[in-house]
Design goal:
- This protein is of the alpha/beta class and 372 residues long.
- The protein has eleven helices and 16 strands.
- Helix 3 runs antiparallel to helix 4 and helix 4 packs across helix 5.
- The longest helix has 30 residues.
- The site of 5-S-methyl-1-O-phosphono-5-thio-D-ribulose has 17 residues, from helix 2 and strand 9.
- 5-S-methyl-1-O-phosphono-5-thio-D-ribulose binds next to helix 2 and strand 9.
Length: 372
């Protein structure tokens, strides 16, 4: 495994004196302020996901898993029957599932938590709750390991020398740690590739400018920030040798949903003959989703477009369309890097096999029904 330096952790479980706390680095405030949110109630965690205090597909799944575990630990401090435990797990999972629709990691993590709870039926409820805490921690730890494995698989695909464009934020902030696409770049740099990271600012919420540029500065990755509309020009100048992005949901045949603007980057790459890669854990692959047309695309508030940093920039009454994600057709993707290896077109066989291998591995890590 490649050793890399990644200082950023955005989600943490903390057993505080007043009970369990889900601690989140508030990504709405970065880079100007470093503020930690101590969520003492599961509803605080759900709000943090909805309002993007925590964001990025894997990080959302991890935060929701912690929120569900917190809910059950708190509920078990009062009398709770076994049947009521299961009903509450299902109800809390439904509440978290309603926070954001596109990133499938959220649903993947919640389904895994619900399935885990079913395995401990019949045991004392307090033990069942602690088992869910252990499961949430396992989801978090596995995500970090997945990111490091993606780095190892993806680094050799990066140019030995040159510029790599990335969109949105896919680093330690968006994951358990290290990152997906940004993690591959970290790993390639650690291997000695002489890379320069071009960071799309990523309107409307500026995840690139606010978060990726900050992560690069924190960890000493050589980077230059551009506005989204500069990417074509940069490619024409010959300064981009590859592009790499993360994903929020990957359909079984490879169509990939990611932050709005990603589709445009992929088309620009095609025109300029530049390879376009996706890096995502298998928890982002939705085998039940036949193609990109079936991926639900979140639409967010008009104010994200009419305002910048809280300041109005468009006239009152201006009509707005604000989809948070778009879909890159599989045909534009040179490879999908997961923790299991690199999937190539036609993607269905590779992605299906990779998900199966990852599921087998997860089963071996924690024995069913045995609280760790
Ligand atoms: O709306 P966001 O900020 O949650 O969107 C995040 C992205 O689109 C990321 O690129 C994606 O989740 C991959 S994160 C490793």
């Amino acid at each position: 495994m490649i050793e890399t330096k990644s200082t950023i952790r955005a989600v943490a479980w903390h057993d505080g004196p007043r009970g369990p706390v889900v601690r989140l680095l508030d990504q709405r405030k970065l880079p100007l302020q470093t503020v930690w949110l101590d969520c003492e109630r599961p509803d605080d965690v759900a709000d943090a996901i909805r309002t993007l205090a925590v964001r990025g597909a894997p990080a959302i799944g991890i935060a929701a898993a912690y929120g569900l575990a917190q809910s059950m630990v708190q509920a078990c401090s009062s009398e709770l029957a076994d049947g009521a435990f299961d009903a509450l797990v299902a109800e809390v999972a439904r509440r978290f599932a309603a926070t954001r629709p596109t990133a499938v990691n959220l649903f993947w993590a919640l389904e895994r938590m619900v399935a885990r709870a079913a395995m401990t039926r019949g045991q004392p409820v307090a033990e069942r709750a602690r088992d869910l805490v252990a499961e949430a921690i396992a989801i978090h730890d596995e995500d970090i390991a997945s990111c490091l494995a993606m780095g190892a698989h993806g680094a050799p695909l990066m140019p030995r020398q040159g510029g790599v464009l990335t969109h949105c934020n896919t680093g330690g902030l968006a994951t358990g740690g290290h990152g997906t696409a940004l993690g591959v770049l970290r790993s390639a740099l650690a291997l000695g590739h002489e890379l320069h990271v071009y960071v799309d600012e990523t309107r409307p919420l500026l995840q690139g400018a606010r978060l990726t540029a900050w992560e690069c500065a924190q960890d000493g990755l050589p980077a230059t920030l551009i506005t989204d509309n500069m990417a074509a020009h940069l490619m024409k100048l010959g300064r981009v040798q590859a592009a790499i992005v993360g994903a929020d949901r990957i359909a079984v045949q490879g169509d990939t949903a990611n932050k709005i603007g990603t589709y445009g980057v992929a088309i620009l790459c095609k025109y300029h003959g530049i390879p376009f890669y996706v890096a995502a854990p298998t928890s982002t692959v939705d085998l039940r989703c036949p193609d990109g047309d079936h991926i639900p695309i979140e639409e967010r508030a008009p104010a994200e477009v009419t305002h910048l940093g809280g300041q109005r920039i468009a006239a009152e009454g201006t009509g707005v369309f604000n989809p948070a994600f778009d879909v890159v057709p599989a045909a534009l993707i040179a490879g999908i890097i997961t923790e299991e290896g690199v999937a190539r077109a036609p993607f269905t066989p590779d992605l299906t096999a990779m998900v199966a291998r990852a599921q087998e591995r997860a089963k071996r890590v924690r024995a069913p029904g045995l609280p760790a």
